[in-house]
Structures are given as structure tokens and as C-alpha cells.
Design goal:
By secondary structure, the protein is of the alpha+beta class. It contains 7 helices and 6 strands, in the order ββαβββαααβααα. It comes from Frankia casuarinae (strain DSM 45818 / CECT 9043 / HFP020203 / CcI3).
Length: 163
């Protein structure tokens, strides 16, 4: 599995870019602690795994709880990383298992975003725009990350960091 994680952080009014290693964290609390050390304003982490899904985590200095978004709720049962980091943050999806009954199958087999759809609203991407980006045919998680960063005003430094 190929996992990529990068964060944009506001530091003294300017964006900075930081590579993250999700293998270094055991859960969402550890990830958010790592993120809070990166900036004095909002910090947004983007995680992708094998181009299968996008996870967005946002922390703000004045809010103790992180905001979390997953582009596909199915990863909570198919990805050890997603389950480890996000199952507790998205309790309505925690504990999903592959159902035996066809009537319950849509809970696991139907791709759907889950979490806070408006976590980037004040950074240029309201919920509707986020849904459009992840639903656009041909858009890989890396493309969505670039678009979200661009909308937040950090696109150029993210592109430079990815170089």
C-alpha cells in the first residue's frame, strides 16, 4: 500500500507545507497532536492511500476537536489505516462489517463521503464544491488535494513541495 500524507499549515499568516508519516501515529489524537505542532492557525492534513480515497483532517487552535472528512466511507472496513485513524471520529460508521444480508449491503458497498463536508468552507471550498471535486470523473485524490490547496491559497507552495 502506498500512503501519502501532507499538511498545509498557517504560520504567522502564511501557508507552509509539511510531509506527514501516518505510520508514526496510532490514532486520530496522535495525528492531531502532530498537526497542532505545525502552525498557529488552521492546519489541514490530506491523506491518500493507493489513489483509493482521500481523507482530510483539519485542526484549529481555538477548537479542541478535529474535523474529519473521508471521500469514501467503505475505507473504514477496507483500510487498516483509515480504520485506525478515523473509525472513532466517525462513530456512525465504526464497527462496519461486510454484511450477510443483501438489504444491509449498501452500508458497506456503496461509495459515499462521510464526515464534515464543510470543514474547508472558510478556506474556499464549501460542501457542494467538495462533493463536486470528489465526484468528478477522472479526479484522483492527488488532483483533489491540489484543487483544495489552490482554493485555500496554498496551491503554489504545495506544488513546489511535491516538485
Amino acid at each position: 500500500m502506498t500512503t501519502k500524507a501532507i499538511a498545509i499549515a498557517r504560520v504567522h499568516g502564511h501557508w507552509s507545507v509539511h510531509d506527514l508519516d501516518p505510520a508514526d501515529v496510532d490514532d486520530l489524537d496522535a495525528l492531531t497532536d502532530m498537526m497542532r505542532d505545525l502552525g498557529d492557525g488552521p492546519v489541514v492534513a490530506f491523506l491518500e492511500e493507493d489513489d483509493e480515497y482521500l481523507a482530510v483532517v483539519r485542526v484549529c487552535p481555538d477548537d479542541p476537536d478535529p474535523q474529519v472528512f473521508l471521500s469514501d466511507r467503505r475505507v473504514l472496513v477496507t483500510s487498516d489505516l483509515a480504520e485506525r485513524l478515523f473509525a472513532d471520529a466517525l462513530p456512525s460508521m465504526a464497527g462496519l462489517t461486510t454484511p450477510d444480508d443483501e438489504d444491509d449491503a449498501s452500508a458497506v458497498t456503496h461509495a459515499a463521503p462521510v464526515g464534515d463536508l464543510d470543514l474547508l468552507g472558510d478556506l474556499g471550498t464549501p460542501a457542494e464544491a467538495l462533493l463536486e471535486l470528489i465526484g468528478e470523473e477522472g479526479m484522483l485524490p492527488g488532483d483533489v488535494i491540489s484543487a483544495l490547496s489552490e482554493r485555500a491559497g496554498a496551491g503554489e507552495i504545495l506544488d513546489d513541495a511535491r516538485g
